[in-house]
């Protein structure tokens, strides 16, 4: 997605320990007009799939999924990372290893909101090691639903997530793939 | 907002310790079509204000703010509750007391994304004791911006937040106000 590459080159910065910062439009401040372009692109990439629900993970995925859902005309469900009094007791859980935090956390989705007849599109902002996406796929499988695709805004091509998901047969599409962030320079694949 | 009252009566449940659960459309699963109705309503309620930015707090506020922002044509900023490697070092912070969790947590917004010339609309899903809203107001004030209004989807009228905010001169508008949840019955004001 050319528009996204331009946006990343214009507004993105490479922070410490090779982190790509896009918090001016995707992670902290949200450029809603631009997220609409992202939503349209996801709709186009997955136009051959009949989607009944979009699944994402709090917090950064929520804006992307919500705006994109308008083009699919389906509800969004976001997996919870934190304990919440509001969450049902009956949940599908999955363990997700966070590389940056060096620990495993649990993600949860109420059994009410992913069903066996659901055809799910998983959307998220970043794909690095792929553990969050695998956790979400695991939850859909536990519910007996089908994962029709995984849509990622920015794939870090130099990490293992993309390979890991594609090799396990996931219909993964990333809007842009970063080849390298070496020498603080953003290089696309 | 009549449509919202109907939705709450149809889908909402009263859980343990007087918690109103609306996770079928607002807190966990997100009814995006319905959130568009909420967004339009906020636009109407604050149509006399010139807004440059919508501020909310992760995670439940993000979907509401993102969809509503389409009617205001402005970016969203969401305050972070959790430490994040992606967050700038230069932040405006505020302490928020969580009644349900019985402890104080810090919310943070990068100094880049709220500026002295910003006219901010604060949006959130619930107003109970008002501490989250006061924390967000505090952050806008630290940045030298002005709070043009606070829009809340569901105000718990039997808790102190609404009174607290209105008495301090905040332009607070809630789409619905719950008068009581006694005997597991939802009663609107």
From TrEMBL, chains A, B:
Subcellular location: Cytoplasm
UniProt: xanthine binding residues: 20, 27, 156
Metabolic or biological pathway, per its Swiss-Prot or TrEMBL entry: Purine metabolism; XMP biosynthesis via salvage pathway; XMP from xanthine: step 1/1
Catalyzed reaction equations: XMP + diphosphate = xanthine + 5-phospho-alpha-D-ribose 1-diphosphate
Residue span, Phosphoribosyltransferase domain: 33-155
Its biological purpose: Converts the preformed base xanthine, a product of nucleic acid breakdown, to xanthosine 5'-monophosphate (XMP), so it can be reused for RNA or DNA synthesis.
Protein name listed in UniProt: Xanthine phosphoribosyltransferase
Source organism of the structure: Gottschalkia purinilytica
Gene expressing this chain: xpt
């Amino acid at each position: 997605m050319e528009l996204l590459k331009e946006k990343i080159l214009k507004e993105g910065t490479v922070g410490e320990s090779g982190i790509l910062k896009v918090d001016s439009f995707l992670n902290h401040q949200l450029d809603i007009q631009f997220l609409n372009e992202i939503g349209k692109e996801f709709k186009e990439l997955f136009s051959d799939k009949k989607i009944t629900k979009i699944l994402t993970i709090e917090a950064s995925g929520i804006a992307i999924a919500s705006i994109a859902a308008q083009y699919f005309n389906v509800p969004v469900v976001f997996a919870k990372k934190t304990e919440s009094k509001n969450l049902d007791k009956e949940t599908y859980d999955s363990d997700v290893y966070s590389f940056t935090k060096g620990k495993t956390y649990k993600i949860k989705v109420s059994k009410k909101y992913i069903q066996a007849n659901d055809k799910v599109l998983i959307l998220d902002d970043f794909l690095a090691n792929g553990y969050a996406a695998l956790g979400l796929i695991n939850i859909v499988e536990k519910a007996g639903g089908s994962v029709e695709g995984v849509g990622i805004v920015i794939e870090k091509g130099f990490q293992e997530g993309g390979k890991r998901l594609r090799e396990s047969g996931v219909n993964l599409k990333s809007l842009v793939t970063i080849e390298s962030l070496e020498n603080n320079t953003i290089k696309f694949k």
